[in-house]
C-alpha cells in the first residue's frame, strides 16, 4: 500500500471506529435480537435447535408480526406527519433562510442565525412542555381566545398539536442547510437572468432553486428522518391517540424486545435507504459539476 493511501486510511480510522462502536455495533445487536423469540417477563428465549429455527422460518416471526394490520394506523400516522412536517418546514424555512442570506443586512446575519439556534439552548422536553401549556384547554392560547369571546378549543392531544410540535422542533434543521446553500449561491447568474428579461418568479424557480437544491435535499433529510422516529412530541402533545412508531418501540421494548427490535430495524432500514438515495444524488451532482 502506498504511503498516501495508508495515510488516508489512518486519517479515516477514528471515524470508522466511532461509527463502528456507536452505530454499527448497536445495529448488529438489534438485528440479532430481532430474530429471536420473546421469553417470560420480556426476556429473550434461548434457541434449542438452530437448524430447525431457521428452516421453519421462525426467525422471521417478529417481522411478520410487525406487519400486522393493527400497526398500520400508527405507521400511516407516522408517515403523513413526517411528510407534512417536512413540507411545512420547507415552506416556512426557505423564506426565512432566503431573508437571512440574501435580504438581511450583513451586520445582522449573525444575530438572526443566533435566533434560529436559540431553541437548542433549552432542553427539548422543556420546550415541548411549554407547548403543552400553550395548547391545553386552560392554556395561554385559549385564554387569549376567551378574552375576545371565542370558546376554548380542543387543541391538545390532537394530530395538529403533534404537527405543531414537530414543525417547531425540526424547523432549525431546515433553515440552516438552506441558509448555507443560499449563502454560496452565485448571484451573478441572477443578474444575468434579469438582464435577459427573466422576471422575479422565473429567476427564483429557474436560477435560485436549482442552485440551492443540495440545501433543500439536506434539509428534507435532516427533518424527515427524526420526524419519522419521533416519540417525545407525540407522547407529550399527542397522548395515547397520537402515538407514532417511535412510541410503539419505546413503550413496549421491555415487554417484547425481539418484536420492538424488528420494528426499530425496519425504521432504521428505511432511514438508511433515504440516506443512500441522498448520497447517490450528491455523488451524481458532484460528477456533473466536475464535468462542466
CATH class of the domain at 70-252: Mainly Alpha
Number of helices: 14
End-to-end distance = 33 Å
The proportion of residues forming helix, as a percent range, comes to over 70%
Rough shape?
globular
* Global structural class: mainly alpha
Q: Which consecutive residue ranges, at least 5 long each, have pLDDT under 50?
A: none
| CATH fold group of the domain at 70-252 | MetI-like fold
Look at the structure and give the mean pLDDT.
Answer: 85
Oligomer: single chain
CATH superfamily of the domain at 70-252: MetI-like
- Counting DSSP E segments of at least 2 residues, the number of strands comes to 2
User: Order of strands across the biggest sheet?
Assistant: 1-2
SSE topology string? HEEHHHHHHHHHHHHH
Task: Assess the beta-strand content as a share of residues.
Answer: under 5%
Based on the coordinates given, report the CATH architecture of the domain at 70-252. Orthogonal Bundle
Can you summarize this structure?
By secondary structure, the protein is mainly alpha-helical. The chain is built from 14 helices and 2 strands.
Describe the structure.
The protein has 292 residues and is mainly α. It has a domain at 70-252: MetI-like fold, CATH 1.10.3720. It has helices spanning 3-34, 50-55, 61-66, 72-103, 109-117, 124-135, 140-147, 159-183, 188-195, 200-211, 213-228, 232-238, 245-252, 257-291, and strands spanning 37-38, 44-45. Strands 1-2 form a two-stranded antiparallel sheet. Helix 1 (3-34) packs antiparallel against helix 14 (257-291), helix 6 (124-135) runs parallel beside helix 12 (232-238) and helix 8 crosses helix 12. The radius of gyration is 24 Å and the shape is globular. 25% of the residues are buried.
